[in-house]
C-alpha cells in the first residue's frame, strides 16, 4: 500500500461520500461538471490522456496491485489521492476494483456530430437508441479495438458520462472520438452531404455481412455502421434513411444477437475488409 498523507475516508455519511454517490445521476454530473471513473484500466487511460482533468483519486485501503500502480502514477499528477475504507468505496464505486477518480466533464467531447473534415477519416460505429450503458460502453471498446474513426451515440442512447459506460469502455472513451446527442436524420443529412454511406444492421435485410464486406460499399469513406435499440433494433424510419441494410447470417436457433455481440461481429468483419 502507498504511504498516503491524507486521512482515510471512512464516514459513509460525509458530504464528500454523498457527492460521490450522487455522481451516478446524470443531472448531478451536469450540474457539478464532474464524472466518476472506476477501475484500474479506465483510470489509467484517463490519467494518460487527460491528466489536467483529474480532480481527486480514491484508493481503497485493500486495493489490489494494479490499482496501487495507477495511484502511484496519479501521485505524479495530483496530491489528492485519498485512502478509502472498503465499506465506503462500495457505496460510490462498487465495481472500482480498488480505485476511482473524479474528473472534469471536459474530458469528454461535447459536440453532437464531428466536422465534415473529421468525418472523412474512415468508418464510424453509430448507436441508435442503445440504452443499456454496458452495451454502449462495450461498443465503444469494440470500435476502438477495430480501429474505427469513432462512435456516434445518437439521441436516445445511454449517457456517455455514465460510470457504467466509462467502465464498460475500459478507457477507450478517453482516446477514441465519441460524439453524442444528434438525431438520426441529422446524421443521414451529414452523410449525404459528404458522400458517405449509411449502413444499418437489420435482421430481415436481404444482403448478408459477407456479401457486404466483399462489395465496394465496405470501403466507402465516410462509412457509418448503424446499430439499433436492444429490443427493437433500427426503426422503420431509421432504416428508410440508410443507404443499405445488412444482416449477420445465423445458422442456429437463436432469433437474434445482443447488440454488443452483433457490433463485435460486424465491426470486425468490416474493419478487416477495409484493411485488405
Question: Are there runs of 5+ residues with pLDDT below 50, and where?
Answer: none
Which geometry do the CA atoms define?
elongated
| Radius of gyration over C-alpha positions, nearest whole angstrom | 20 Å
Along the chain, the helix and strand elements come as HHEHEHEHEHEHEHEHEEHEHEH
Can you put this structure into words, describing what you see?
The chain is an alpha/beta fold and 276 residues long. It folds into 2 domains: 15-107, 60s Ribosomal Protein L30, Chain: A (2-Layer Sandwich), CATH 3.30.1330.30; 116-275, Alpha/beta knot. It contains 12 helices and 11 strands. It has helices at 15-22, 26-32, 40-49, 65-74, 86-92, 116-119, 133-145, 163-169, 184-193, 209-213, 236-241, 259-275, and strands at 34-38, 54-60, 81-84, 99-104, 123-127, 150-153, 178-180, 197-201, 207-208, 223-227, 244-247. The strands form 2 sheets. Strands 7-6-5-10-8-11-9 form a 7-stranded parallel β-sheet. The longest helix has 17 residues, at 259-275. It is elongated and about 60 Å long. The model has no long low-confidence stretch (mean pLDDT 95).
In short, what is this structure?
With 276 residues, the protein is α/β, with parallel strands linked by helices. Helices cover 38% and strands 18% of the residues. The protein has 2 domains: 93 residues, Ribosomal protein L30/S12 (60s Ribosomal Protein L30, Chain: A); 160 residues, Alpha/beta knot (3-Layer(aba) Sandwich).
Topology:
Elements: H1 15-22, H2 26-32, E1 34-38, H3 40-49, E2 54-60, H4 65-74, E3 81-84, H5 86-92, E4 99-104, H6 116-119, E5 123-127, H7 133-145, E6 150-153, H8 163-169, E7 178-180, H9 184-193, E8 197-201, E9 207-208, H10 209-213, E10 223-227, H11 236-241, E11 244-247, H12 259-275
Parallel strand pairs: 2-3, 5-6, 5-10, 6-7, 8-10, 8-11, 9-11
Antiparallel strand pairs: 1-4, 2-4
